[in-house]
Structure formats: structure tokens, C-alpha cells
Amino acid sequence: MTSPSHPVNFPASFDVLAQTYDQVFEDNPITARIRPIFWRSLLAHFKTGDHVLELNCGTGTDAIMLAENGVQVTAIDSSERMIAGAEEKAREKGVSQLIRFQQRSFEHLVTLGRMKFDGAFSNFGGLNCTSNIDPVLETLSGLLKPHASVVVCMINKFSLWEMVSFLLRGNLRSAFRRMRRQPTTVRLGSSTVEVCYYTPKEFIRILSPYFEIEHVYGLSILSPSPNSRSFVLRHSQLTARLLRLDETIRSRSPWHSLGDHFVIEARRKS
Ligand SMILES: C[S@@+](CC[C@H](N)C(=O)[O-])C[C@H]1O[C@@H](n2cnc3c(N)ncnc32)[C@H](O)[C@@H]1O
Predict the structure, then answer these.
(1) How far is the CA of 10 from the centre of ligand 1 (A)?
(2) How far is the CA of 151 from the centre of ligand 1 (A)?
(3) Atom number, ligand 1, closest to the C-alpha of residue 130
(4) 57: CA distance to ligand 1 center in Å?
């Protein structure tokens, strides 16, 4: 289902990734180092007994971690195969009773009806996959209790690491690929998705009507982005040092705006 002004990504685009997602993405040495940083934010905001909504849950890794910490999660994703993989993983981990996985687009949040969640989150750029973000955030805010926490991890429009690494290889076109007209078409295997990139400042402006911003930080600022797998394998000690450096600068200006991804912790306005 697409419309010329607001193309909606076909769930099938991510269906093709679902089977190998955990091998390609979860076992990526950088993803493995940055996901726990996002988890610190989740665990700082959500506690045992809370019921939170996850948008674009993928194969359910974050929902499972929260369930293991006693948090109840309604986890949605538009991809049928991602949801099937997530359900299987939750069963294997013995936490199915705390997670309700649903195949549903976050563009159809309104169909969740009158539910009121204690919080919501979205990891690894799922919310970059729509060119019509405003109604998603407006509907989301209506599904949350006053002052409920929201934690989102977005793909940054300006990734220092990616830009410098493409420029050093003389690849000018790729260095600026995220800055082209939005949405940008990104290839996913044999299909494509429409992606909108934001700087933290741009995304904060979009969130502001509904949410108070509490904290912004960057991921993969001076350390390699998840796409730089071969660099990480060749330079493991340097990577470890850069990861430690990121830890000290990630919340500081201007570094918090220069990561490959950024995380925003916010609260629903009352
Ligand atoms: C990069 S993955 C991130 C998955 C997961 N959050 C993680 O941390 O591994 C992006 C996910 O967003 C989902 N997605 C994309 N557009 C969506 C939409 N409109 N509604 C719900 N999920 C969507 C995809 O199916 C995919 O599982």
C-alpha cells in the first residue's frame, strides 16, 4: 500500500531479512556493544510491573530483555516473519507470558484503541522507516499515561564515522547519501525501503509538541558503526579504545549529535 506523498514500506521488505536478521545484526560485534547501552536507558525508565509498547520490535531482542526484568511488553512490527521469529525466541527464553507480539504497523497505532501504556520505545531506526512520522507520534502520545517515558534510537542524518570513512575512500556520493532528499530509497536485499534521516535537532523538533526531552546521546560517534564489520575485525584493540572514548563523550555537545545513531529519552507531556 503506497501513496505518492507518503510511501508506506512494504512489510515484505523486512520479511526478507527476518530469517538471517539475528546472525547478521545481533552477532555484529558493534551491535552487540551498543544494544546494551540502549538497554541501560530502557532499564532506567521501565520497571517491573510496567506495561510498555515497543514499535518495530524486529526479532524481539529488546522486548525479551525487558520481560526478563519483569516488564510486560506489547511489541508490534509490520513484518510477519520478524514477529514469527520474535515469538519463537520468546518461547525459547521462557518469557512468552509477559510479551504480546502483534503484526501491526506503527502507522496503524490507532487500532490499539483505548490502551494506556506506562511507556514506549523504538530501537535501531524503525521510526526512520516512515515519511509520515508526525501522526505516528501524535497517536503514540495518546496511548501513553501522562509523563510516561519514551526511548527512541534513530539513525542519524549526519554520521561522523560513516562520512569520514567514505571520504577517506574517495566515495563522495556515499559520504553524503543520508543528506539527499528525504525520504531516501535504501536497498534491503532484493527489495527497498523508504528511509527518512534526521539530525537529533530535527527529531527533537518533531517530538516536542508531544514530549519533553530529557536526554540525548550518540552511538558510534568515534567508534565504528555497525556497517564497519571488517574494520572492527581488523582493528579490534583500536575499536575497543574508541568504544571507551565514546562512552565518555556520548552525552556531550557537539558529540551527542554526531553518532551513527542517536538515542532520545523523553516524557509524554501532561
Ligand atoms: C532495523 S530493524 C530494528 C528491529 C529491532 N527494533 C531491533 O532493535 O533489532 C527495523 C524494524 O522495523 C520494522 N518496521 C519498519 N517499518 C515499520 C512500520 N511501519 N511499523 C512497524 N514496524 C516497522 C521492520 O519490520 C523491522 O523489523
Answers:
(1) 11
(2) 15
(3) 19
(4) 6
Q: Give me the residue spans of the domains in the chain.
A: 11-268
Is 211 within 8 Å of 150 (Cβ atoms)? yes
Q: Does domain 11-268 have CATH number 3.40.50.150?
A: yes
Q: Is the entire prediction scored with pTM above 0.90?
A: yes
Q: Considering only CA atoms, which residue is closest to atom 13 of ligand 1?
A: 56
Tens-digit pLDDT string for the chain (270 aa): 333 333 445 556 788 888 888 888 888 899 999 999 999 999 999 999 999 999 999 999 999 999 999 999 999 999 999 999 999 999 999 999 999 999 999 999 999 988 999 999 999 999 999 999 999 999 999 999 999 999 999 999 999 999 999 999 999 999 999 999 899 988 877 778 889 999 999 999 999 999 999 999 999 999 999 999 899 999 999 999 999 999 999 999 999 999 999 999 999 998
**Burial level of 146, CB count in 10 A (0-12/13-18/19+)?**
exposed
- The answer to whether the CB of 179 falls within 8 A of the CB of 197 is yes
Atom of ligand 1 nearest to the CA of 129: 16
